[in-house]
Description:
It comes from Stereocaulon virgatum. Its cofactor is heme. The chain is mostly helical. The protein has a domain at 107-317: CATH 1.10.630.10. 57% of the residues lie in helices and 5% in strands. The chain is built from 20 helices and 6 strands. Strand 4 (377-379) and strand 5 (382-384) form a beta hairpin. The longest helix has 32 residues, at 286-317. The termini are far apart.
Amino acid sequence: MFFNPTSALALLLASVLSYNVVRVIYNIVLHPLAKYDGPLSWRALRFPFVKTMVSGDLPHRIKRLHEQYGPIVRVAPDELSFTDPAAWRDIYPQNFQRPREYKDKPPRKSCRKSDICQRARSWPIPQDTRTSFFSEKSVYEQEAMIKGHVDLLIRKLHQTIDTDPSKSAAVVDALQWCNYATFDVIGDFIWGSSFKCLDQVQSHPWIQVIAQFKVALIVGAFKFYPPLDAILTFITPKSAMADLWMIWKTTENKISERLTRSKGRKDVMSYMIAANKASSEYYMSRDEMEINAMLLVIAGSESVTTALLGATHYLLREPAKLQILVREIRSTYPEEDDITGISLNSLPYLNAVLQEALRLCPTIPDGMRREIPKGGAAVAGHFLPEGTVVSIPQWATYQSPRNYYKPAFFYP
């Protein structure tokens, strides 16, 4: 029998089309999540979600969808978004796992455990197994180091202003200087040595690389389509990976340097090393140390920068509230050296400003997505089938009039 390739191709295309039509009808009408409202195209296919994610507009778009459809929105065939505060305790304390599309393993790195935040709460400090580096006590042990970097930041800012021709109206880039300071602090905190951004008054290449969120979003989008994801790995030129390899090389060098030092101020690596000696349960391989250290550097620097810039932005927009904060600080501390981490907890307006800045400028405006485990689970009073992806989009939740009075305003 004669084989007709044209007919075979037409049959294949017809089959693919039929399959997708059936899948769309199922997603809209018969899917277990069909009763939840959302845009028709988003309920039918994952593509509108992915397209909006790559555009960078996903947090804002989801906010608008919640304004239109309410506290629960179906943003993809298998995904629900919640702005109901009750969903928080149902999703995140339950240790639901991240969906496959949101997991990543660095190239040429072997990582069995990347849930550092969950396990680190139990990492022992030498001679004290009751605390971890996430404890208040451990953070206060870093105060002298942090103060040193803050003092250097202030000196460098003064020098920059003093050398500006228009001293009375000198302009500095707040984002740039916050990045310098936070990267130096987090580097010192993780592996006991800073990136020297403040000393050299220039960005470390790390900052430019992790600022390339667009590339990360595009790579993440391909994960929703496994065949394309596999192809991407093969067609990506080595030159495009050069910056990423630079990050890993820096991390490897920092970890190697830190492991050769046995004495000095405690840092996060101190706890990793102590945990490896104390218990096989919390043992980390070299690759796992590098992966988790890199994650902490990125998360720690960007989150603090966002909070600082958010507070600065809104205080400068509202001088009356800035003056309230200035009076509170200066009436509490006659001298700069009187300021301590513990005593700052007693300043109600300062802490209110920081909380409000985090609400208006959340460090993660989108949601941290989790997957309903086997057997299903209840979220905000709704029982959901296993495999459902759920999240709380922080920007939409904190901007919801259901949760806050005049949510767009800065009200410390």
